[in-house]
Amino acid sequence: MHYIRSYVLRQGKITKAQAKAYAEWKDTYCIPYEKGKFLDFPTLFPEKEQVVLEIGFGMGEATAELAEKLPRVGFLGIEVHTPGVGRLLWEIRRRELSNVRIIQADALFVLQDMILPESLDGVHIFFPDPWPKKRHHKRRLVTKEFLTLVASRMKEEAYLYIVTDWEDYAFWILDKVSQCPLLKNPHDAFSPPIPWRPKTAFEQKGIRAGRKIHEIYVKKQTLPISSINL
Fold it and tell me: What is the rounded radius of gyration, in angstroms, for the C-alpha atoms of the chain?
């Protein structure tokens, strides 16, 4: 896969609480990126009925809220920015969550090198960076190749749930989904709002700015033998 990084690592401000949580709990709840060390989900999340991957969890508000509401689901969050990782670690301790683990690394490499094929029950990508300027579109996370990789790590009938407040990116995502034969869209285009998804401060900021929320909810399908080129 031709690789262009979809994020910029900024220094950002980290609060004392985030820094303290990061220092004290990183080794307990974070999994180091290691090429070729594929995760054993039954061991990582014992007695959990499903495993959901969240790519780019930001400050972790939605991740923590869902994990608290769904204790039988294991949540694996990927994020590159240390303040967000620190904040989610703080939430894990505050809420006493046992079903969240974090990998602080590039999602592309984690998917390629640490997630087994057909092992995920769901994938969340909430409000990925839209890279709105046309010359930056090549940096967008969602491409046909990336979706093909994500789908390969999903079980049959597992779901992929993407939300954006950037209309141009929303139609871009729909187009890329239509190019991925492993994914089927049960809706004509965008999904109606999924009631269990938590609303975040970032989302409210977008709404206040007059941007519409677009939701894409699709599922993994098995290709018929007749469609496979041998």
Answer: 17
Helix (H) / strand (E) element for 136: namely none
pLDDT of residue 197 exceeding 60: yes
Side by side, which strands form the sheet with 120-126? Answer: 100-103, 73-78, 50-55, 120-126, 154-164, 214-220, 183-184
| pLDDT tens digits along 67-92 | 999 999 999 999 999 999 999 999 99
Question: What pLDDT was estimated at residue 32?
Answer: 98
CATH of 18-227, one of 1.10.510.10, 3.90.226.10, 3.40.630.10, 3.40.50.150: 3.40.50.150
The pLDDT value recorded for residue 229 is 44
Q: One of 113, 129, 168, 188 is an active-site residue; which one?
A: 129
Contact status, residue 52 vs residue 121, Cβ threshold 8 Å: yes
228 pLDDT higher than 70: no
* Sheet strands (E) in 5-105: 50-55, 73-78, 100-103
Q: Reply yes or no on whether the pLDDT at 158 is more than 50.
A: yes
* Mean of per-residue pLDDT scores for the chain: 91
Does the predicted TM-score (pTM) go above 0.70?
Answer: yes
Residue with tokens 């093909």, as numbered in its chain: 148
Cβ within 8 Å of residue 136, ≥6 positions away: none
Q: Is 129 a catalytic residue?
A: yes
Domain ranges of the chain: 18-227
Q: Could you give the CA distance from residue 54 to residue 122 in angstroms, rounded to a whole number? A: 8
